[in-house]
Target: Endonuclease/exonuclease/phosphatase domain-containing protein
Amino acid sequence: MKESGLELLLGCDANSHHVGWGSSNTNAKEEALHNFIMEKDLMLLNRGTHPTFMDCRRHEVLDITIFTTGMVDVVRDWRVSKEPSGSDHSQIRLSLTGRTDIIQRRNPKNSDWKGYREELSLRIQDVPSRFKNREQLEHAAESFGEAVKRFFKNNCVPGTQTGTKKVCWWNNTLTSLRNQLRKAWNKVKNFCDSIHKSKALEERKNL
Model:
């Protein structure tokens, strides 16, 4: 990566336990992966110990997000999402900072039409009513057209709009399916939690 001058942001299912990224324990294989990340001058984004993997047998941090040092000022707000993913691995979310394109737009509804008409009326007085040839007519028409656009800009203050928009493909059907997924996920989670609780009580009795 250093030779190419490129930056790296990588999220993956490492299937490895290490306390360095929030797992409950560490073993030799995972220690080797952790050492590799450090040797390559990479950085871990993982924060906290909230599990990224959950099933009825265990809750664990198995997913890691790594990045190069050049991304340190770009990546923000790494977190394990509570939104159901439809998988035994949770969604990992983060924010990327960067330049947002600023778009300026003029809304005719917000124009000062009185000022526009006054400027245009003064300009019309200078427009000749007769022309000797087509070239004079075309020149006058072009000049007048430019004046119309200029007076409009003078009397309509542009508004600022960012380049970000809502996704166009989201619809009510997807919202309904997401709600169904949440309900199904909550049922599974509650069932798994009850199993974990039963196992904990059983282990406590055997102490």
About this structure: The beta strands are 9-13, 42-44, 53-54, 59-60, 63-68, 75-80, 92-96, 102-105, 159-162. The chain has a mean pLDDT of 84. DSSP finds four helices and nine strands in the chain. The longest strand covers residues 63-68.
